[in-house]
Every structure is written in C-alpha cells, then in structure tokens.
Amino acid sequence: MSTSTADHGSWRRSLAPRAAGVVYAFIALVAILTITSAAQGRPSYLSSVNLSNILDQSALIAILAIFMTVVLISGNFDLSVASTAALAGTVALKTIDSYGPVVALLAALVTGALVGLINAVLVQKLGVNAFIVTLGTLTAVRGVVQAILDGQSITATDTTLLDIATARWTLPIAAAIVIGVLLVAGAVLLIRRGSSIMSTAGLWFAGLALILLAVFRPLMLTQTAPVWIMLVLAVLAALVLRFTVVGRNLYAVGGNPEAARLSGIDVDRYKMVAFVLNGTVAAMVGVLYAGRFNSVDPTVLTGGELTVIAAAVLGGTSLFGGSGYVAKSVVGTLILFTLSNGFNVLNIGSNYQNVVQGTVLVAAASLYTATSKRERSRFRLALRRNKGSGGEPPAASTTENKELVRH
C-alpha cells in the first residue's frame, strides 16, 4: 500500500462520525445558536464575552471530565468526584482563616487523595464493584460535608482563594502565536514518525485555535485562571495518554487487564493511581469552586458527577475501559454548557434543558455504539475475505484493528 493511500485512509478514519462526531455536533450546535440569535435580533452569540462566559462556566467540570476520562480508560468508574470536590472545598474554607491558604490547600488536596485511595483499595484490593464503591463514597462523603457544615453555609475572611479563582490571566499575542506554531509543528512531527492523525487531533486543535484567536480574537486570550488551568491539564493529559509508555499501559489495562498482567504491567497500580489522581484533581476543583464564591453550602456541586460522566461519554469515552480521548471529553463538556448557555441567551424555559441535554446524550451514545459495531463488522468481514484468499491482513485493516481494540 502506498504512503498516499495510507494517509488518505488515516484521514478518512479520523474524520469519520465515530472519531470526530462530537466535534461535528459542537460545530452544528454553535452554528444553530448563532443563526437563531441573529434571526431574533439578539447580540452575536459568538461575541468574545459570551464565548468567554461559556469557557469559564465549563472549565471546572471540564477538568473533572479530563480525569474522569483517565479513570474510565483504566476500566473503572468514579461517581464520587463531585462529593469529593465539595468536601475539599469545605475543608479549605474551614481551615484557611486559622492556618493560611497554603495549609488550607494542602489539607484539601490530601483529603481528595485520601478519598481516591479509599476507592482504589476497596475496588482493586477487596474486589468490590467500582459503581457500588463510588456510589457509597458519594453518599458518605456528602454526609461528611453536611455534618461539617451542620446545614449552614460558611464564608472565609481570607480572600486568597477568591483572588485566585476569579483572576484573569492574559496570554500575550506573540506568545500565543509561538505556542500555537509549536503545537502544530509537534503534531506534524508526530505524524511523520508514525502517529495517527486522530491521536494528534488535540495538538492540531489547540495550536490552530491559539493562532486564530491571536489573529482574529485577541480579547479571547484573556481568560480566568480555571480556564487556563483546564487547557494546560488537557494538553498534558493528552500528551501523556497518547505518547508515553504510561499512557499506552493505561489503555492496555483498561482494554484487556488479563493480557496487560501477562505482559508484566502492574494492573492494580495503574488503576489505583487513576483513582487517587482523580480524587486529588477533584479536590483542586473543589477549592477553585469554593474560592469562586468564597463560600460553600451543603448542596455545593450536588449532581455534578452526572454532568462529568455525561461529558466523557458524549466525547466517546467507553464505560468499559480501554478507549477515550481527553480532547473529545473537553468538547463534550463544551456541548453541555453551550446548550445551557444557548437556552439562557434565547430565553427558553429551563424545563426543556434537561430534556434536550438527555436526548443529545442518548443520541451520541447510540451513534458511537452503532458506528463501532459497523466498523467491527467491516473488519471481521475483511479478515474472512483475506483468510479465504490465503493472504495476510492488509496494513489498513491492521491499523484499524489497533484503533478498534481501544474502542
């Protein structure tokens, strides 16, 4: 098979609904809301102010979705992230006035890591189902939050966390262009070394987005601290998952734990680290959330875990492990918050928001399932035909098989 034919096949697979459907859905949603807003004589939906609002509203949930994707890739499940974030935020605000912001932050992060470790031990060492364990910790941790707060909201006198969570950082235009060019160049280099186009999609998207924003929307380079934190974590997580031994091992652990174990991979360690990392990041999100309002109450982030899981699933992450892309989970989060923002901008009743969001989620899951089954059927048919002809599987099919193993 020629290089040009292989490249064409790689592009075709990367642009297929199974691979890029969530991106198409996001573009279509933004286009519909933009046209509808213009038709109703409302301010431009794509204004820098509105886009910045969407990013700010979705940043914390997107951070949780990034590391929920890591847990799901490992083959586990974590329903306790929102409760963990609430507990960490409560601990931070309870201790900051007495011990200062550094101690408060460390106490919150240790709290999150401890919850993650409890989940990890119960699931991996005792063998309890992850859904049951994290559902239990969700309830127990939420109960701890309610006991600490005694049904009351609390507010801190020290405003350090408020200053951090609401700070606006500006990326210089020249720096944005340089970083964007470096990201695109890195993607090109990785493709030349054999990486698939889909695996470098996050680098392409981030690099081109920075360049375009620097040229056409420089105001978008000023965002709140949580947005920049989310972007940095997304890029780092994507690079680790796709281009390091740790990332490849994590996919192997989630896709086929027994085969990974026979290959010498410490399956328990990878799965447990994913839980602990998820709990620690949830704690950081809780601190940022508490800092944004400089207060917490017993209901803070209630139900947030469902939004996080919905964002990851909307991005095509498998609930059965071994498959998922961080960049697509971030896009899934943006879809959910763009829907919510669109309802508010168009002044549509909130009664319909959950209906539409639920319908979008079911439709996305159905599309992923249908296309995945169809791709598997095509691959099996190609194998049977090739076996009948007595030849070896073609290179394109072998590549497709590797991609399907992750799904």
From TrEMBL:
Pfam families listed in its UniProt record: BPD_transp_2
Transmembrane segments: 20-39, 59-79, 99-123, 130-149, 169-191, 203-221, 227-251, 272-291, 303-322
InterPro entries: ABC_transp_permease (IPR001851)
Protein name, as recorded: ABC transporter permease
Protein source organism: Paractinoplanes pyxinae
Top-level taxon of the source organism: Bacteria
Presence of the UniProt keyword Transmembrane helix in the record: yes
Region (Disordered): 383-407
Predominant location: membrane
UniProt-annotated location(s): Cell membrane
UniProt keyword Membrane present: yes
Keywords, alphabetical: Cell membrane, Membrane, Transmembrane, Transmembrane helix
Membrane-related topology note: Multi-pass membrane protein
Signal peptide annotation: none
